[in-house]
């Protein structure tokens, strides 16, 4: 049994990680801005802000913590401003890194993002490719990486650059797609859908996090599914397995991107610069390093994991619609102007 700290433990990924660590017999402390729903004799839930250094020092002061899993991150969606997102993601990481070092915790695993890039690649992205974020969230995750690099020697910092995380219960922007499929509406795609955009199954990501912590392996790793179908193939698989009457319709890329850019500028759409730059681009991580150094292997394909997420949505629509005071990935994103597109579908 180990004592472990999870930031963002009430969120989508953090909540799943907490469950797995408890099932393994570990003692877990979770810190989050929102209260969690899990109850367990080995779980201590703390409602608090990771920018609060005194709070973190108080949590870690007893000693004996063997690892920190840093899953907490705010998205600049809804009522969360860009300034608040930046302060939480950057200053929160700075505070957490300093507290981890001061307490002598030997390992910190940090979840970074493919939002470090705002363009597609015609090959898998490697760990030595220089980040080129195009919006504040990606910049905040990159800044977090640099903060951890400055603590090299104080603890083993593992950075896992993650694409979109998929599992039963993952909603957010995906809920918009799922609503279209559930109602048998046209599923609109920018371009012809021949691009490949990698996902990661949440349980596979958690397996990598646990391997990194156990091995105290410092470094940067890209992660993602091995079997990445085209987006048209992935959506078609979900539609067919769901028995939906939806059909996929391609939109001309140039005009569609211009429309998304304008809608975002007018605050009418949940799709930001990262989305409209990447929505019809190829993006996959090269996972050779994480396989070789951690002994990690993925299990599910893009199509398989997205179908699992859709089936959860279809079985729980009423309860999902009533949710409040949950993390951004546990509730459906506001469609904004996309709702108008729905009604002509």
Characterization of this structure:
There is one protein chain. Strand 4, helix 3 (82-103) and strand 5 form a beta-alpha-beta unit. The model has no long low-confidence stretch (mean pLDDT 92). This protein has helices at 12-23, 53-60, 82-103, 136-149, 174-182, 202-215, 231-242, 253-265, 273-278, 288-294, 302-315, 317-321, 338-343; strands at 3-7, 27-32, 43-47, 65-70, 107-113, 156-162, 164-166, 187-190, 199-201, 219-222, 248-251. With 345 residues, it is α/β, with parallel strands linked by helices. It contains 13 helices and 11 strands. The chain folds into 2 domains: 3-166 and 198-222, 3-Layer(aba) Sandwich (Rossmann fold), CATH 3.40.50.720; 174-196 and 229-282 and 303-343, no CATH class. The longest helix is centred in the N-terminal third of the chain and has 22 residues, at 82-103. The strands form 3 sheets. It has a 7-stranded parallel beta sheet with strand order 3-2-1-4-5-6-10, with helices on both faces. A two-stranded parallel ribbon has the order 7-9. Its EC number is 5.1.3.26.
Observed structural traits:
Rossmann fold, 13 helices, single chain, two-stranded parallel ribbon, seven-stranded parallel sheet, 16% strand, 11 strands, globular
Strand order, sheet with most strands? 3-2-1-4-5-6-10
Derived from helix and strand composition plus strand pairing, the structural class reads alpha/beta
For the record, the count of structural domains works out to 2
Low-confidence region ranges: none
Oligomer: single chain
What is the correct CATH architecture of the largest domain? 3-Layer(aba) Sandwich
Domain NAD-dependent epimerase/dehydratase: 5-219
GO molecular function: isomerase activity
Keywords: Isomerase
Protein name: ADP-L-glycero-D-manno-heptose-6-epimerase
């Amino acid at each position: 049994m180990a004592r472990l700290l999870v930031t963002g433990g009430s969120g989508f990924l953090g909540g799943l990680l907490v469950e797995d660590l408890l099932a393994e017999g570990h003692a877990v402390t979770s810190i989050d801005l929102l209260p969690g729903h899990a109850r367990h004799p080995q779980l201590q839930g703390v409602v608090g802000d990771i920018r609060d250094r005194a709070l973190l020092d108080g949590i870690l002061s007893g000693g004996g913590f063997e690892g920190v899993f840093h899953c907490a991150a705010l998205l600049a969606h809804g009522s969360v401003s860009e300034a608040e997102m930046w302060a939480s993601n950057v200053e929160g990481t700075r505070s957490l890194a300093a507290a981890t070092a001061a307490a002598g915790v030997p390992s910190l695993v940090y979840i970074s993002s493919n939002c470090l890039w705002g363009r597609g690649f015609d090959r898998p992205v490697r760990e030595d490719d220089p980040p080129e974020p195009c919006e504040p969230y990606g910049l905040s995750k990159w800044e977090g990486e640099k903060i951890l690099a400055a603590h090299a020697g104080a603890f083993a910092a593992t950075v896992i650059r993650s694409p979109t995380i998929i599992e039963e219960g993952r909603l957010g922007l995906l809920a918009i797609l799922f609503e279209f499929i559930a109602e048998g509406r046209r599923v609109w795609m920018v371009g012809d859908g021949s691009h490949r955009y990698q996902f990661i199954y949440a349980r596979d990501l958690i397996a990598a996090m646990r391997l990194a912590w156990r091995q105290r392996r410092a470094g940067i790793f890209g992660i993602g599914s091995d079997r990445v179908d085209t987006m048209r193939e992935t959506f078609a698989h979900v539609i067919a397995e769901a028995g939906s009457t939806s059909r996929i319709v391609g939109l001309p890329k140039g005009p569609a991107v211009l429309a998304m850019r304008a809608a975002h500028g007018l605050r009418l759409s949940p799709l930001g610069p990262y989305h409209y730059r990447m929505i019809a681009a190829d993006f996959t991580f090269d996972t050779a390093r994480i396989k070789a150094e951690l002994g990690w292997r993925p299990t599910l394909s893009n199509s398989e994991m997205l179908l699992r997420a859709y089936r959860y949505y279809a079985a729980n629509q009423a309860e999902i619609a009533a949710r409040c005071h949950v993390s951004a990935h546990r509730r459906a994103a506001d469609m904004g102007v996309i709702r108008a597109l729905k009604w002509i579908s």
